[in-house]
């Protein structure tokens, strides 16, 4: 036993286990998660397994070396937990190794990232400090006590072979019990969108994984996910939950049904069966109200409801108050929020939560994307952005979605900066964008997508656009970072003024529809700062609330109070313009449909409407009214959301729309060839007779 103590196996095991468990508890306290939860049993077992593996490796080193390595390991674990707290606070999701492709871009705003950290986040280092204090003041004392105790009681030799065998047996026992926690009934939550067993196979919902497996457990599972694919068994078949209504919008599914009957690929047929049974939304009083008009979609960088201000931002307010405005619109953040949210708005799909979907799958094609819908309707389509491709490969992404021409900042020929704190002017952007669009001599209507940049962070340092219009908030007690943000919004509002002026001068204003939405809220500002302008509580994802406006100079003003997000944009626009589209191919739906599913879904599967908020990370339900929902009703909503998100992932991962288009076209050609052959044969017979 003396040798046991000399090789530090048990001692180091206990030290590592106590440290990591305290780290997990501290993390949960800081996050505001429920500390005493049944998931702690699983987390403790996982930490015991990890601690035993580490201590076994260290048992082959001397005491000094093992102490140093434990301190280094503990520091790395603490830094990882610290960064996860900051990343979730700053971006709105937990960081994943699957988004490492954006690391180079993220380093551009590393200063703003660390400045956003809340003071309470530093408490995560308390377990590490306690570990250091233990080694300084108690380590030698406890070691002498243990040595003396075991020297008196035992002379049993602890050989390396015995050490290895006993460690392996202990790991097997811990692993067996841990595995049982993944399925044993008392450790499951019936409301979870994804089961613990499925999350262990693939950590698809980071916030839920952290709640059920701990922050260190998520880190290990996240690393594992780099080398494994999402298992097919993970996919939830929710075709029974798709709701069918009697509609005037019908489709001939003969070829699709034939494809399903002949398809041997299980995954592709899972998608086929889900989509063909998906809800068909009907025509409504808004269908075709903008048929034949031009369309300009503007995704506004970092815009939230601070922009709704008639004195400071009159151009936006004019369109907001005179158009169709949505009072409960949200732009949920996820990994790579701007690029992924733009992707979702263009395709009507949910992006894959733990990667930069727009970049990773940039070579996919989408005949269902907004550009292709307008291409098919005879429009000339284009898209523009006043920055480079340093973050997202828009030149490839937009083209593969059907944009007839993509213009980056170099193509536009406007001034821009290579330094992170300064961005191109949206005023310059709008001038050139409209000159290009309106100068084309064509009888075809145009569809244009604009993504702005001027209101991008940072706000905590001097910049050209951040300082340009500081005078509009002079005399207020707003902090300087908020004033800089509001200055940048002024640049955007001026750009909208240029847009209206040029459309009117060209005689196109009445014939043009302008759709505007924010890509995400200005997460470079703290909640307390935002609350100096917006007086509502920003908890329960209310910070994700952003404007959505549909404007045309000839319509009557209207406020829509349905809960919406960018995933509904393309099907809603398609209905408004009377385009030929199949609503079953989108995970979002037409907001104006009388059976619209009135709730907004966030990146981790959380959701809310005017009466209920479901937190997917904790599986907790908050009610805003006296009206309650049954467990079955909530579970059913969760299953539908899970199916939509999982189907979106499958569609993207398998480049499904290209497959479907090609397969149906092949069947169509075969059918036509067969029909022609039959007709020719009949004619020959007739002639021969």
Give an account of the 3D structure:
- The chain is an alpha/beta fold and 689 residues long.
- The protein has three domains: 180 residues, no CATH class; 317 residues, Alkaline Phosphatase, subunit A (3-Layer(aba) Sandwich), CATH 3.40.720; 35 residues.
- The chain contains 25 helices and twelve strands.
- It has an eight-stranded mixed sheet, sandwiched between helices.
- Strand 11 and strand 12 form a beta hairpin.
- The radius of gyration is 29 Å and the shape is globular.
- The termini are far apart.
- The N terminus is likely disordered.
List the main descriptive attributes of the protein structure presented here.
689 residues, alpha/beta, Alkaline Phosphatase, subunit A, 4-stranded antiparallel sheet, disordered N terminus
Task: Describe the secondary-structure layout.
Blueprint: H1 2-6, H2 9-31, H3 39-58, H4 63-91, H5 103-106, H6 110-115, H7 126-153, H8 160-181, H9 196-201, H10 206-225, H11 254-262, H12 266-276, E1 294-300, H13 314-322, E2 324-330, H14 337-347, H15 357-360, H16 370-376, E3 380-385, H17 394-400, E4 406-407, H18 409-412, H19 426-439, E5 446-451, H20 464-468, H21 480-505, E6 512-518, H22 527-530, E7 548-551, E8 558-565, H23 569-576, E9 600-601, E10 607-608, E11 612-615, E12 620-623, H24 631-653, H25 656-688
Parallel strand pairs: 1-5, 1-6, 2-8, 3-4, 3-5
Antiparallel strand pairs: 2-7, 6-7, 9-10, 10-11, 11-12
């Amino acid at each position: 036993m003396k040798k046991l103590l000399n090789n530090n196996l048990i001692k180091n095991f206990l030290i590592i286990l106590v440290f990591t468990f305290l780290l997990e508890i501290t993390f949960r306290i800081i996050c505001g998660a429920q500390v005493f939860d049944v998931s702690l049993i699983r987390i403790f077992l996982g930490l015991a397994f990890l601690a035993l593996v580490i201590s076994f490796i260290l048992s082959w080193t001397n005491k000094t070396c093992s102490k140093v390595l434990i301190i280094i390991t503990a520091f790395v674990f603490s830094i990882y937990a610290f960064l996860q707290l900051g990343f979730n606070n700053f971006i709105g999701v937990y960081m994943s190794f699957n988004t490492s492709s954006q690391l180079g871009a993220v380093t551009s705003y590393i200063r703003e990232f660390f400045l956003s950290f809340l003071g309470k986040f530093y408490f995560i280092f308390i377990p590490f400090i306690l570990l250091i204090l233990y080694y300084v003041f108690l380590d030698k004392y406890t070691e002498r006590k243990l040595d003396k105790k075991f020297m008196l009681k035992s002379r049993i030799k602890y050989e390396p072979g015995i050490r290895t065998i006993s460690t392996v047996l202990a790991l097997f026992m811990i692993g067996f019990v841990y595995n049982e926690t993944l399925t044993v009934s008392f450790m499951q939550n019936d409301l979870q969108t994804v089961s613990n067993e499925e999350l262990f196979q693939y950590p698809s919902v980071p916030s839920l994984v952290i709640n059920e497996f701990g922050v260190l457990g998520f880190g290990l599972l996240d690393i594992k996910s780099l080398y494994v694919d999402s298992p097919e068994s993970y996919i939830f078949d929710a075709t029974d939950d798709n709701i069918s209504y009697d509609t005037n919008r019908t489709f001939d599914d003969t070829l699709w049904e034939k494809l399903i009957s002949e398809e041997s690929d299980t995954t592709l047929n899972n998608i086929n069966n889900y989509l063909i049974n998906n809800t068909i939304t009907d025509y409504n009083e808004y269908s075709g109200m903008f048929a034949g008009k031009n369309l300009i979609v503007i995704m506004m960088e970092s815009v939230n409801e601070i922009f709704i201000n008639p004195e400071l931002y009159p151009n936006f307010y004019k369109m907001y108050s005179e158009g169709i405005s949505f009072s409960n619109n949200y732009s949920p953040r996820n990994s790579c929020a701007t690029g992924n949210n733009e992707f979702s708005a263009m395709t009507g799909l949910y992006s894959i939560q733990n990667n930069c979907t727009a970049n990773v799958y940039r070579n996919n094609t989408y005949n269902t994307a907004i550009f292709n819908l307008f291409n098919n309707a005879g429009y000339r389509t284009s898209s523009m952005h006043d920055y480079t491709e340093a973050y997202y490969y828009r030149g490839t992404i937009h083209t593969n979605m059907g944009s007839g021409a993509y213009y980056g900042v170099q193509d536009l020929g406007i001034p821009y900066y290579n330094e992170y704190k300064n961005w191109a002017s949206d005023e310059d952007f709008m001038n050139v964008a409209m000159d290009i669009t309106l100068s084309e001599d064509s009888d075809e209507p145009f569809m244009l997508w604009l993504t702005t940049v001027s209101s991008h962070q940072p706000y905590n340092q001097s910049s050209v656009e951040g300082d340009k219009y500081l005078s509009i908030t002079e005399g207020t007690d707003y902090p300087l970072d908020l004033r800089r943000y509001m200055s940048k919004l002024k640049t955007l509002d001026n750009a909208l003024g240029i847009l209206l002026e040029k459309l009117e001068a060209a005689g196109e204003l009445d014939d043009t529809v302008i759709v505007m939405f924010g890509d995400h809220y200005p997460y470079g500002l703290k909640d307390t700062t935002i609350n100096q302008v917006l007086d509502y509580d920003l908890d329960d994802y209310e910070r994700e609330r952003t404007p959505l406006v549909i404007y045309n100079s000839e319509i009557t003003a209207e406020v829509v109070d349905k809960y919406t997000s960018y995933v509904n944009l393309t099907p809603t626009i398609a209905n408004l313009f009377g385009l030929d589209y199949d609503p079953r191919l989108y995970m979002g739906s037409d907001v104006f449909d009388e059976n619209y599913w009135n709730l907004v879904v966030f990146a981790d599967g959380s959701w809310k409407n005017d009466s209920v908020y479901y937190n997917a990370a904790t599986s907790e339900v908050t009610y805003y009214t006296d009206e309650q929902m049954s467990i079955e009703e909530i579970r059913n909503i969760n299953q539908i959301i899970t199916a939509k998100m999982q189907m979106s992932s499958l569609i993207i991962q398998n480049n499904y729309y290209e497959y479907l288009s090609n397969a149906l076209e092949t069947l169509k050609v075969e059918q036509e060839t067969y029909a022609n052959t039959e007709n020719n044969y009949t004619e020959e017979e007739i002639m021969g007779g």
